[in-house]
Write a structure and sequence with these properties.
heterotrimer, A mainly alpha (207), B alpha/beta (292), C mainly alpha (275), A: Ferritin, 7 helices, C: mainly alpha, MetI-like fold, 12 helices, 78% helix
Chain lengths: 207, 292, 275
């Protein structure tokens, strides 16, 4: 990633997210490259319902990007957790970039980090335990939002992309659950959130 | 004091009595000064401004007279007021629910440099009975829902369109709009009366009829930047009085009054996210010894 | 000398009154160039408002005449206890402020009104659509027609009606062949008044039917909205309304002139107050 694409500019989080993208390319190369690309097909003309969902998901991604940036910056995370947080940040940025591309492709202007500021419960970044705990909560939110989206989109290409992202968020959830000391997984059918529920859950973290 | 003098003279030591008298006088004077100073700070800085006409956005109907009951007020949609000012209406101050209308008038030389004075939030209101069962902005796209908004030239109408655009709900929601009003209070009254299922107003308007409507939040990530601006009208013959009215609104008391009505402060404090708990203050080991 | 002064005073009053009434109408056409006005007519706002006004006024006018004529005839010819009260009630909307009429319509026919539940049960929708506009126009303009119609029917010479009956015509035939033609002048005047009032209706419409371009935004509503958006469009619509109003008045005058010339030869002895 030599030059930042326009979509990536929309998704670079606070405090040197761009720098992280640049350094992250090294870490990204370390990650498994199989299935690391979004669906190749063109999105085509997306119906308004799909675009409405996409906009919400972009907001959710901006939340997780902001969270991981602060989590890494808090300097509380231990080596294994820190590595996962770094990769998670790269993943979320790539998700956001793809979704932002869908909006710009439809002629709209997606939300950027500059448009919104997030706030977290008091004490969220005081210790490694609190950070990983919040990571689990936010990944649950993200997973629920994407699961809800998966069943309500009409564009097949977008559906595939959302399915891939959902799988990735589940991986994050699993990893941070383990770091929190909880079992990695246990629900056979994780809960999906409706678009309204996802929006309300997101509202708790926006000021 | 009279009794002290007699007491002192009764005790016979006049010097000691005079000293106590001076102490008592000093004490009383200090108390009076402190009290008087305290009282002075509760009296508003300037007297009520009279003899001017203020043209203000409809959403300011309750708060402006509460800040200063002196001026003559005319409340309507900001664009209607702007049109009237362009036609020579006798306004001294113009307060709009956005920054673009005053800026346009300033570009035409009809008002002085506008100044931002408060912010607000856009919300959805539904009648208390909520016949259409609306619980979120996404429910507005359900079939059969009737919605009332202000027309796009009115600030609140343009903010509504901004929100809908930001959420890609424009076509779906506008298909359910049954009426467009010329100011925000007309939207509010249609919802309060139960004539429509939902309407877009400011959170401050919803507060004025809280028993008749329920508020549904617009997601914070889609909120437009609602900033109010005001300016002195150039052809006003009462420039000084108009300026002092603006200062009144910008003053601490004026801003506090705006906040009490639900308006947001101008500058949003950007929180710094703490990564460690605040350092514990050293416990006070020594106690102050008095008297003894 | 005194006579000259009195004549001058009358003349001055005449000039003031005439200019006061004429100036706003003239200014409408001269504030901007006629070219600008004509340009605005191609604005979709104007076209939509014209269509809505035309449709709703036409339907309202038909309803007013359909229901108003028998009502007026009954009130004009029958005498019963409470008649004066009924006549006052029918004429009340004339003096009622239109906004008050609008609120009254809401609490009577609106969704939360007295008949709201009944209407929705019957599937009748009078909420923020052209039916609502028609109701608003009929409510405020109807009484104008009914009042004129009552006067017109009252002026019909009773002897003629009785003569018609004695000659063997039934009540229905008498009404259509004798009463109606004799009262037609007054009825036409009432209808023209009601049409003009209905076209200009604003307060009740905006409160009860709302305002949405292409659906419920009539010409007067469009003026109000465009005033704060684009003054030239508002001017164009106002000018259009002046022309329509003048056309209505002119057709009324011409109509009554034509009628009197047509009737003059046959009913020279039946001079009614209405023609």
């Amino acid at each position: 990633m030599d030059t930042l694409t326009r979509s990536q500019l929309f998704c670079s989080g606070l405090r040197g997210g761009a720098a992280l993208i640049a350094t992250g390319s090294v870490l990204g190369a370390l990650a498994d490259t199989a299935g690391a690309t979004p669906p190749a097909g063109a999105l085509g003309v997306l119906p308004a319902g799909d675009l409405a969902y996409t906009r919400l998901l972009i907001a959710v991604e901006l939340l997780t990007i902001d969270f991981y940036t602060h989590a890494i910056g808090s300097k509380h995370l231990r080596l294994g957790t820190l590595a996962d947080a770094n990769v998670a940040l790269i993943n979320e940025t790539e998700h956001c970039t793809y979704l932002a591309g869908a909006i710009t492709g439809a002629g709209g202007t997606p939300l950027t980090a500059a448009d919104i500021s997030f706030s977290y419960p008091n004490g969220s970044f005081f210790s490694a335990g609190s950070v990983t705990g919040l990571a689990v909560v936010l990944e649950l939110l993200s997973l629920g939002a994407y699961l809800g989206a998966a069943g309500n989109l009409s564009s097949p290409v977008l559906q595939t992309a959302v399915a891939q992202i959902t799988a990735n968020e589940a991986q994050h959830l699993s990893a941070f659950s383990t770091h929190s000391g909880d079992p990695a997984f246990h629900e056979a059918f994780p809960d999906a959130l409706t678009i309204a529920e996802a929006s309300d859950a997101l509202d708790a973290y926006t000021s | 004091m009279h009794s002290m003098r007699t007491r002192a003279s009764r005790h016979g030591s006049s010097r000691g009595g005079r000293k106590r008298l001076r102490l008592a006088l000093a004490g009383t004077l200090t108390a009076l000064i402190v009290l008087g100073g305290g009282l002075a700070s509760t009296i508003p800085a300037g007297a009520s401004v009279t003899g001017i006409t203020v043209y203000a956005a409809a959403s300011l109907t309750d708060v402006f007279p509460a800040i200063d009951p002196g001026p003559r007020y005319s409340f309507a949609g900001s664009n209607t007021l702007s049109a009237q000012i362009q036609l020579g209406a006798p306004a001294d101050v113009f307060a709009s629910a956005n920054t673009s209308i005053p800026a346009a008038l300033f570009a035409k030389g009809l008002v002085e440099q506008p100044v931002d004075f408060t912010r607000n939030t856009l919300v959805i209101v539904v009648p208390k009975a909520n016949p259409a069962g609306i619980n979120s902005i996404y429910d507005l796209t359900n079939p059969g829902v009737t919605i009332d908004i202000a027309n796009s030239a009115v600030p609140v109408g343009s903010y509504t369109l901004q929100v809908l655009g930001q959420m890609n709900l424009t076509k779906a929601v506008l298909a359910h709009v049954v009426s467009e009003e010329t100011d925000v209070r007309d939207v509010l009254s249609k919802v309060a009366l139960g004539q429509v299922d939902a309407g877009f107003v400011y959170s401050t308007d919803a507060q004025t009829v809280s028993g008749q409507v329920t508020v549904i939040k617009v997601p914070a990530w889609a909120q437009p930047k609602v900033t109010y601006a005001m300016a002195v009208v150039t052809h006003s013959p009462n420039q000084a009085a108009a300026q002092s009215f603006i200062q009144e609104v910008l003053s601490k008391a004026g801003q506090a009054k705006l906040r009490s009505f639900g308006f947001l402060p101008l500058v949003k404090a950007k929180e710094k996210i703490a990564t460690k708990p605040p350092a514990k203050k050293k416990s006070a080991k020594h106690t102050l010894m008095i008297g003894r | 000398m005194r006579r000259l002064l009195v004549t001058l005073a009358f003349f001055a009053a005449y000039v003031v009154a005439l200019s006061f009434l004429l100036l706003p109408l003239v200014a409408l056409f001269t504030h901007v160039t006629p070219g600008t006005l004509l340009d605005q007519l191609s604005n979709p706002v104007v076209g939509d408002a014209l269509v809505v006004s035309a449709k709703t006024s036409a339907v309202a006018q038909a309803l007013i005449i359909l229901f108003g004529t028998p009502t007026a005839y009954l009130l004009a010819t029958r005498r019963f206890p409470g008649r004066t009260l009924l006549v006052t009630v029918v004429e009340l909307p004339i003096v009622l402020p239109p906004a008050a009429a609008g609120i009254g319509l809401i609490v009577a026919f609106g969704r939360v009104g007295l008949l709201g539940g009944t209407f929705s049960a019957l599937g009748i929708d009078v909420s923020f659509n052209q039916a609502a506009v028609v109701l608003a126009i009929a409510f405020v303009a109807g009484p104008f027609y009914v009042r004129q119609a009552i006067a017109a029917f009252e002026a019909v010479d009773d002897h003629l009606v009785m003569a018609s009956r004695t000659l063997g015509a039934g009540p229905v035939r008498t009404f259509f062949r004798v009463v109606l033609p004799l009262a037609s002048g007054g009825l036409a005047a009432g209808a023209a008044l009601a049409l003009a009032r209905g076209l200009g209706e604003f307060g009740a419409t905006i409160v009860f039917a709302g305002s949405l371009q292409g659906r419920t935004q009539t010409l007067p509503l469009a003026i109000y909205y465009e005033f704060a958006v684009n003054l030239n469009v508002a001017l164009a619509i106002a000018a259009l309304l002046v022309i329509i109003a003048a056309a209505i008045l002119l057709s009324l005058k011409l109509g009554s002139m034509w009628q009197s010339s047509r009737l003059g030869s046959r009913y020279r002895y039946a001079i009614t107050a209405s023609s």
